[in-house]
Amino acid sequence: MSNNITATYSTGTNTTATINNTSTGPRNVSVTAPSVAKLTKLTALSDVNSTTLDDGAMLQYDDTTKKFITRTEIKTESGNLILNGGTF
């Protein structure tokens, strides 16, 4: 006869553990933790179009494609462009 015990340890990461208790042997513990892909570059993001990546390029949002685009010049299709760099 086998008793399965499932325990959830919550630290905000949804880690779960399953303990199988069998009458004929030792307890086996299995732990599953969620994995997240580690991105180390902006170019790896799905909402960044870096096909025109060049020295000195900057990111600019394109509302038509709903993506950030790398550009070496500032463009606007919809009107005024206001740059505010803050107070120094």
Sequence-ordered SSE layout with sheet pairings:
Elements lengths: L1 E8 L5 E8 L5 E5 L15 E2 L8 E5 L4 E5 L17
Parallel strand pairs: 4-6
Antiparallel strand pairs: 1-2, 2-3, 5-6
Q: Could you explain the architecture of this structure?
A:
The structure is a single chain. This protein is mostly beta strands. Among the domains are: 31 residues, no CATH class; 30 residues, no CATH class. Helix content is 0%, strand content 38%. The chain is built from no helices and six strands. The strands form two sheets. It has a three-stranded antiparallel β-sheet, with no helix packed on it. The radius of gyration is 25 Å and the shape is rod-shaped. 0% of the residues are buried.
Strand content: 35-45%
Helix content, binned percent: under 10%
Output the helix-strand order.
EEEEEE
> Which structural class is indicated by helix and strand composition?
mainly beta
First-last Cα distance:
74 Å
Describe the largest sheet. 3 strands, antiparallel
Q: Uncertain spans, ≥5 residues at pLDDT below 50? A: none
Using only C-alpha atoms, the radius of gyration works out to 25 Å
Query: Tally of extended strands?
Result: 6
Mean pLDDT figure = 74
Number of helices: 0
What is the spatial order of strands in the main beta sheet? 1-2-3
Sum up the overall morphology in one term.
rod-shaped
